[in-house]
Amino acid sequence: MVALINTALMRTIMAAGRLRYRLTEERGQDLLEYALLGGLIAGALTGLAVVGIMSGAIESMACGIGDQINFSDSPACP
Prior knowledge:
Strand content: under 5%
Number of helices: 2
Order of helices and strands: HH
Shape: elongated
Structural class: mainly alpha
Number of strands: 0
């Protein structure tokens, strides 16, 4: 029974050591950083494109709403 516990404990210690090594090694870190940076740039460009395309539609919608409201007949707010 002691041998079984000793074996399980040694395997756990070895697994923890391998996990710690994998967490501290820096291989592949540059690739991850470049992928995140590329995603950020792609998201920013997509956002700019959407704002550029939608700005005309938003402006025409605001003008249409403004044309439907009669500001001269509205009572002033107290």
